[in-house]
Amino acid sequence: MASERRATPRSAGARGTTILAHTPKTNVPAPPPIKKLLQPRASQQQQQQKQQQQQQPHPRRMGGAASRSSRRTVATPAAAAAAVDAAPAASADATAPVLPFRVGHGFDLHRLAEGYKLIIGGVEIPHTKGCEAHSDGDVLLHTVTDALLGALALPDIGQLFPDTDPEWRGASSDTFLLEAVRLMRARGYAVGNLDATIIAQRPKLSPHKDSIRANLCRLLGADASAVNVKAKTHERVDSIGEERSIACHAVVLLVRAAGA
Ligand SMILES: [Zn+2]
């Protein structure tokens, strides 16, 4: 079911985040040598902690009964956060290098069907069809959420917010992206820049791109200069070109926040 909310586009927020990528070039400290970045920083005590962790069942490992019960524990953003926070993420691994940058990729596709609202980047776009989805079907926000989670080596959006869970029926996709942003900040990263491409034959998205971009900046807490949203058609071929679906790709660069 499509969400009944959000009848009007949102305006841009003014909440900017100071991040390394926006610092003028002259102020950027020289990066440490690559060799140093890749060296493990673990002390003996940290290595002992890691060994203890390895002896315990991994809460995020998918595929078995344990994983199924783990999925059921993430029914709310708070619960999802607890499940993810309790798990040793790659960046929190005592022996893993703390990377100054992390890159993430996101992709999503939804069927278009009559009877649904078309919501892209939190903006409702007038059209005869909308995205068929369990949540509000916001293809752009789902893609960006997965790009952030991917950059952090965390479980994907479908694992954190299963579409079998009634909790997320008609849910605003803001919830998913804001949770990914929270997890990103908790790990000491900020958005360096993001580049997204929405692929839709119709409707024409160019009149809405500014509103979409502004809302995305607000949700990410990022400056407009760091967030790009492109739109293109699919040359009338395949399901996208035949107006039966809509897709989106995004890549994001995360940078270690100053002082993190
Ligand atoms: Zn989706």
In short:
The chain has 260 residues and is α+β, with helices and mostly antiparallel strands.
Descriptive notes:
There is one protein chain. This protein has a domain at 101-256: 2-C-methyl-D-erythritol 2,4-cyclodiphosphate synthase (60s Ribosomal Protein L30, Chain: A, 2-Layer Sandwich). Helices cover 31% and strands 18% of the residues. The chain is an alpha+beta fold. Bound molecules: zinc ion (ZN). The site of zinc ion (ZN) has 5 residues, from strand 1 and helix 5.
Give the SSE order as H and E letters.
HHHHEEEEHHHEHEHE
What is the CA-CA span between the terminal residues?
41 Å
Q: How many strands in all? A: 7
Instruction: Compute the number of helices.
Output: 9
Mean pLDDT over the full residue set: 77
CATH level 4 superfamily of the domain at 101-256 = 2-C-methyl-D-erythritol 2,4-cyclodiphosphate synthase
CATH class of the domain at 101-256: Alpha Beta
Q: In what range is the share of β-strand residues?
A: 15-25%
**C-alpha geometry:** globular
Q: C-alpha Rg, in Å? A: 20 Å
Computed structural class: alpha+beta
Could you list the spans in which at least 5 consecutive residues all have pLDDT below 50?
1-45, 54-75
Hetero compounds: zinc ion
CATH topology of the domain at 101-256: 60s Ribosomal Protein L30, Chain: A
Spatial strand arrangement across the major sheet: 4-1-7-5-6
Largest sheet: 5 strands, mixed
- The CATH level-2 architecture of the domain at 101-256 is identified as 2-Layer Sandwich
Please estimate the helix content: 25-40%
